[in-house]
Amino acid sequence: GVYSLLKLHHYFLVNYLVLSFLILIFSAGVSYIWLKEMKVNSVKEELLKHVHVVDTLLNSERDIDTLMRTLEEKTAIRFTIVSSLGEVIAESSFDKRIMDNHLQRPEIKAAKKEGIGESIRYSNTINEDMLYLAKVSRLNNELIYIRASYLLVKITEDFLNLWSRIFVIFLLGMVVAIVASFILGKKIGLELNYILDSLYAIS
């Protein structure tokens, strides 16, 4: 009977450890997907907020290029003003004179239809994947597009930093649980051995 109890205890302990490991992996996977989506949505909201800021400032500023560069220095967000024909009117990071026509950019096409458009794609200008958000506006009564963009690698870095901290917390919690289960198991084992020794002594 005592041996059966010991085997039962070991069985439950092994299954507990396996279950704990599976929960850890599942939690890590779910939190990875959830946090990544949350971070991307957060950046989208931030881009939209800054696009609205540009929209309010645009018609009161004479030097739009300087305004774009100043905003990028303060926010680390790249800004581009595009005409209704796709020509780059102002750009915070690059020489607008050598930039391609932007009329067929996915975020511009979406903004033309819906008022606001977004896309995640590779930028041929800076050779990096970026998150773009564009909004229809007007400059001197002419239709334009205000576009804000953010490096996808920065989003990933920020997200991974947050996720790794949460994962470490999960991992530490799991280690504490495992150590506690080993201590409890050892205590139960000692008590069962004591009972076994007592039964041998009696017999």
Helical/strand content category: alpha+beta
Largest sheet: 5 strands, antiparallel
Q: N- to C-terminal separation?
A: 15 Å
* Order of strands in the sheet with most strands: 2-1-5-4-3
The parts where pLDDT drops under 50 for at least 5 residues are none
Helix content: 55-70%
Describe the protein in words.
By secondary structure, this protein is of the alpha+beta class. Helices cover 63% and strands 20% of the residues. It has four helices and five strands, in the order H-H-E-E-H-E-E-E-H. Strands 2-1-5-4-3 form a five-stranded antiparallel β-sheet. A hairpin with a 2-residue loop joins strand 4 and strand 5. Helix 1 packs antiparallel against helix 4. The chain is rod-shaped. The model has no long low-confidence stretch (mean pLDDT 83).
